[in-house]
Write a structure and sequence with these properties.
By secondary structure, the chain is mainly beta. The protein has 2 domains: about 10-95, RimM (Elongation Factor Tu (Ef-tu), domain 3), CATH 2.40.30.60; about 105-170, PRC-barrel domain (SH3 type barrels, Roll). Helices cover about 5% and strands about 50% of the residues. It contains 1 helix and 12 strands. The strands form 2 sheets. Strands 1-2-5-4-3-6 form a 6-stranded antiparallel barrel. It has a 6-stranded mixed beta sheet with strand order 10-9-8-7-12-11, with no helix packed on it. Strand 8 and strand 9 (about 130-140) form a beta hairpin. The longest helix has 5 residues, at about 75-80. The termini are far apart.
Length: about 170
Amino acid sequence: MRTPIAEPLVPLGEIVSTHGLKGWLKFNPFNPASTALVSGTEVIVEKAGNQSIHELEATGPHKHQWLIKLRDINSVDDAERYVGSTLSVAESALEALASGQYYHYQVIGFEVFAVNGERVGTILSTLSTPGGELYVVQGTTKEHLIPAVKEIVEKVDFDAGTMTINPPPGLLEL
């Protein structure tokens, strides 16, 4: 365990319980297809404002979750204190994307507008579902779940911090 770093962090998911007696942890990833969950990756574990840096010793899918093993955490007692923590990586550890692509976390806080110019709301978070990623958008009177697909997301403007969507009829009324 080393001192936390100042680089921007990207949350990968939450540690929800221990698994077995040898220090394994059950992990709910925000993105089950993440390429960052590999042995040797340096991760930041945060709970109640306290951060610690660890190395992933081993990882693997387990039912609808992942099992992760942090190096030097070798007992259920050692592992227990990490339950309820968020697991993150430094932004620089993420795989570089092709031009025009972005990570979903990068649009959190963006203002969302329909193609007709009507303000829909602000992106609060993303939600991984078996059907795909959703943007959780807080409107003035209710929350909207917007599928993160090219058929709906028309434009993402990083300079302006906005997203333009072309919602199918009824989507914003749900």
